[in-house]
Task: structure prediction
Amino acid sequence: MPTEPVARFQIELTRFVAADGAALPPLPDFATDEKLLATLYRAMVFVRAFDAKAVALQRTGRLGTYASSLGQEAVGTGAASAMRPEDVLLPSFRDQAAMLGRGVTPLEMLLYWGGDERGSDFAGPRQDFPISVPVASHIPHAAGVALAFKLRHEKRVALCIFGDGATSKGDFYEALNMAGVWQLPLVMLINNNQWAISVPRSTQSAAQTLAQKAIAAGIPGEQVDGNDVIAVRDRVGKALDKARTGGGPTLIEALTYRLGDHTTSDDARRYRDDATVSPHWHEEPIARLRQFMLAQGAWSREREEAALADAATAVDSAMEEYLATPKRPAASMFDHLFATLPPGQASQRTELGDA
Amino acid sequence: MPDVTLVQAIDLALGRALADDPTVVLLGEDIGTDGGVFRATDGLLARYGAERVLDTPLAEAGIAGVSIGLAAQGFRPVAEIQFMAFAYACLDQMINHAARLRTRTQGRLTCPIVLRMPCGGGIHAPEHHSESGEACFTNVPGLRVVIPSSPARAYGLLLAAIRDPDPVLFLEPARLYRSQREAVEDTGIALPLDRCIVLREGADIALVGWGGVVPDMLAAARVLADQGTEAEVIDVATLVPLDADTILASVAKTGRCVVCHEAALTGGFGAEIAARLAGPGLLSLLAPVERVTGYDTVLPLPRLEEAHRPSVARILAAAHRALAHG
Ligand SMILES: Cc1ncc(C[n+]2csc(CCOP(=O)(O)OP(=O)(O)O)c2C)c(N)n1
Ligand SMILES: [Mg+2]
Result:
């Protein structure tokens, strides 16, 4: 036949800890670092407590619409833990784990979701991007940030997180393509939680994996078990290292599951039943790491209780600070429109009071 | 005749269009099993099947573009964009293609699509969920821009938009989705497009606006009536093409006009109305045209959102300024 195969690809999936917590060696070196494991665990416990509080605040009218990351805590926790402070994170609206891991404060997160712009003026990671609500629209920004690093010969990497649904948008493909063409120091991390609101992964794309979308752009793509924080940290860390040393971009598809509603405005029972969801509770990341650490003798009931208690205390104090933060004067809506407010707007500002 | 909300009236009209015309297809994100995030397509998948009610992947530019292709092939696609902010990704398709396919092919191919979406603030929604971006589309020749403000008008105008042979941007004020109920009979009777609707007659001042501010204009008119001033309240309803005659006739009678909209002041569609009044309407005016609008700043997040909206108090203040003249 006058045809010959010209391209082949394969997508690898990495997992170090099975759903029941069993180790799947060979493990990365850090998997024996008890302190590090405890830090990752406590971070995930904190995110879960934070999400639960945020949902409770929304239900009682004290917070706006909120997107919980229930069941997906390992994705952002693992990714942020692999980043260096000088890297830049470009998050979506469900990336509290990564943002908190980067040093955004719980108070800032609550302010943002409570409808106060001060929540996006991070005191910690000053160059990190604010939450992107228009799905996928921040992926090209990440390519731009990475291009800046490349042009300035800096050993820094941009990390962008987005959902499975986001990989259907042109913004994603355009950024992916540019990242390939320019070999940008960019890591694109898909939180594949299997749902885009009511649309399941199976009808979002006919592709077998989302990771393989990278192949078309000439960059490596891979899957990682997104409920295994050790695997996420390891694979994102390797991709960051590679990008940092001139090796170009990577697309990583983290496989996880959205255990909760899409947001507090959503009622997932309209489109999926509990029987569909419940098996995924056996795969969730926090119990998995706990089982793993217990088996290694690296965890105890006392540590567990301390982790839960510390998370509850920290979340409560963030909540109290949030609830005690007065809203700003209305005129502040003009404060950051331009570097210098033009006279026309200045007079509108006056209409709102001179605060 | 059941009392329905605006969003239920949309659902009713969509169901009617699907039943009446086999070329009508609905497409959009989460419009199938979920029935749309606002439930505007509730029950339609079950009744009309997955070949008439299509859940799409997450891709707004694609939704608009695919609709154009369907339309050129004789379908009448009615696409839902989940929130207006995400329709900005459709601008390329809407401006470069939908609006001019008929002209470019000299009538050989046409584009009877409806792109419908919630717009406006007032529901304490997250960032980018409260856009009033109508002026991005009103400056595009070849697009109709329609925005109802009551359940009955939503039903009648949506049917008209779907039956119209050209592309229509159909804006649904999210704050009105569930704020009022009225009897809407599923008669299949469309309202005329391209007409302003006089909601209240009055000889002293015209209050002209659309969408989410219409209830505020009516509330202001009630206050003015208590003060002895009769306001005429006009729901523009179809921004493009603009029924300027109805507005000019009203101002010929009243001599005073307050134009209201949620979108920012500068370049807002209210400027077009003010320009018409300053042109053919100039000699009727007894006072400068007042505009009560969103401010020229980025729409604040919910904590300050209300302060950005044209409130009843601001409409009244503008009306009093206009009435104080001459
Ligand atoms: C461009 C755009 N279209 C639609 C929406 C409304 N919306 C918010 S989240 C979402 C689904 C996103 O799915 P996915 O990318 O998988 O992220 P997930 O919510 O599952 O984390 C949709 C349709 C949006 N925010 N932006
Ligand atoms: Mg998803």
